[in-house]
Design goal:
Structural class: alpha+beta
Number of strands: 4
Helix content: 40-55%
Largest sheet: 2 strands, antiparallel
Strand content: 5-15%
C-alpha cells in the first residue's frame, strides 16, 4: 500500500485511518485524487511531560521572540539579504554602487535601504552629493558571518 500524508483540509472517511492522497494527478499515482487508500497510520507516541516543559522553556528563554521574528522576516527577502551582504563586504557603498553590483534598479535598492534604515540595520553618511551606507546592527553582522558573509580584503 502507498502511504501519503493526510490532507489536513479533509477529514478521514469511514472507519479506521483512511485519508485522501495529496499527490493528485502525478504520473506515479494516476487518479489517486479520486480514490482512497486504506493505510494503517502509526500509533501516536505518548506525550512526555518533561519534553513539553523543555519545549516551553526554550520559548520562554528567548527574551524578544517577536523581535527575532521581525528580524528573520526582514532577512527572508533575497534582495535585502543580498544588499546586507554587499554593505557588509563593501562598507560605504552608494545606492548606484549597490544597484550596479547586484543588478537591481536604483529605485529597488533605495526602497530596500529605506526599510533597513527604518529598522536601524544600516546607517547612512553624507559624502558630498553621495549617501554612503554602512551596516549598523551587531546582531545582523554576526548573522551575516554565520551564513558566510566576509569582509573585503583590499590590497
Amino acid at each position: 500500500m502507498l502511504f501519503h500524508p493526510v490532507a489536513p483540509d479533509r477529514p478521514p472517511a469511514g472507519p479506521g485511518p483512511r485519508h485522501f492522497c495529496r499527490v493528485a494527478r502525478r504520473a506515479e499515482h494516476p487518479g489517486c485524487h479520486v480514490k482512497r487508500h486504506n493505510v494503517t497510520m502509526p500509533e501516536p507516541i505518548a506525550e512526555d511531560p518533561l519534553l513539553e516543559r523543555e519545549a516551553r522553556a526554550s520559548i520562554d528563554a528567548v527574551e524578544d521572540l517577536d523581535g527575532w521574528a521581525r528580524r528573520f522576516d526582514l532577512l527572508s527577502d533575497p534582495n535585502r539579504l543580498r544588499l546586507l551582504l554587499a554593505i557588509h563586504r563593501a562598507p560605504g557603498i552608494t545606492v548606484n554602487g549597490l544597484a550596479a553590483a547586484l543588478g537591481m534598479t536604483n529605485t529597488a535598492v533605495s526602497h530596500a535601504l529605506r526599510l533597513l534604515r527604518h529598522h536601524e540595520w544600516v546607517s547612512v553618511q553624507r559624502d558630498g552629493r553621495n549617501m554612503r551606507y554602512f551596516l549598523d546592527d551587531s546582531v545582523v553582522h554576526t548573522i551575516l558571518h554565520g551564513i558566510g558573509g566576509t569582509h573585503a580584503s583590499f590590497g
